[in-house]
Specification:
It is a single chain. With about 270 residues, this protein is α/β, with parallel strands linked by helices. The protein has eleven helices and twelve strands. The chain has an eight-stranded parallel barrel, surrounded by four helices. A two-stranded antiparallel sheet has the order 2-3. Helix 2 (about 40-45) runs parallel beside helix 11, helix 9 packs parallel to helix 11 and helix 10 runs antiparallel to helix 11. The longest helix has 16 residues, at about 255-270. It is globular and about 50 Å long.
Length: about 270
């Protein structure tokens, strides 16, 4: 299976993965003006603990903000090849975006046509400062087309409200099977199960297990992962990769040492 994520992180072919999600809507966590704070320095110093950094957000994902984060990470020694983007618009990504890969989300349970697969497939080439997806495939940024599904506990989350998506429960056995069939028909090699940024609890492992039973592609899980135990349960249930963001922000609020400890704790759980 030639999943484009393997081109970015070859290690995923043989072991579980760990991505960091940086919400670039919140630069105050990581910068003092334009200067990286110690927390960002500690994160890059411990780069062996995780596999890649994914930049994203809902309202503040401007080209300038992407450059700010990417340039700072690179100045601290983090490789561009491991910096990705979850674009605020899945229709286009910036032409001069300083990342190596982009997660293009197909929100399959959204009631809004804009967020569904059809618009992505029909996106037309655009001129100026943006590439359409069809053009970007020919560029240097690796496109990772992904089935993006909101699952419990994402109900009430910002992303669920913006996309007006049905949130999948562990009792939705028939829906899960139908969605996997649709994902196969679309030829999507990556499935992202999202529990919602800032969730107080993580996704139930049984949901991951059900998707894994029907789907043989790469499964990523994010939202509410706070402990090594939760991470290990999700991976044992069939996830290939965890993505953690809010938990690290909470560690930053405490102190830089807490961030380092949390990174190493989660890393041990993923690679054990």
């Amino acid at each position: 299976m030639n999943n484009p994520l393997y081109a970015v992180v070859p290690e995923l072919r043989t072991r579980k993965g760990f991505f960091i999600y940086l919400d670039i809507d919140k630069p105050h966590f990581w910068f003092e003006g334009q200067t990286p704070k110690k927390a960002l320095c500690r994160m890059t110093e411990n780069r062996e603990a995780y596999d890649a950094i994914l930049l994203g957000g809902s309202t503040g994902v401007t080209i300038e903000r992407i450059h700010q984060f990417s340039s700072a990470l690179q100045s601290l020694g983090y490789p561009l090849e491991r910096i990705g983007l979850l674009p605020p618009s899945h229709e286009v990504i910036p032409r001069d975006c300083s990342v190596s890969f982009a997660v293009l989300a197909h929100v399959l349970t959204s009631s809004r046509y804009y967020y569904r697969e059809e618009l992505v497939r029909k996106a037309k080439p655009q001129c100026g400062r943006y590439y359409s997806i069809s053009l970007q495939r020919e560029g240097t940024i690796v496109p990772v087309e992904t089935a993006y599904l909101l699952v419990e506990p994402a109900r009430g989350s910002t992303v669920a409200q913006v996309t007006d998506s049905r949130v999948i429960r562990k009792e939705d056995h028939e829906l899960i099977q139908e969605l996997v069939e649709e994902i196969r028909e679309l030829g999507l090699l990556t499935l992202s199960l999202e529990g919602g940024s800032g969730s107080t609890r993580s996704i139930h492992p049984d949901i991951v297990h059900q998707f894994r039973h029907f789907y043989d592609g790469l499964i990523t899980v994010g939202g509410g992962i706070k402990t090594s135990g939760q991470a290990r349960e999700l991976l044992d249930a069939g996830a290939d990769l965890i993505c953690v963001g809010d938990t690290l922000e909470k560690s930053v609020r405490e102190n830089g040492k807490a961030l380092e400890e949390k990174l190493l704790e989660l890393s041990r759980a993923v690679r054990s």
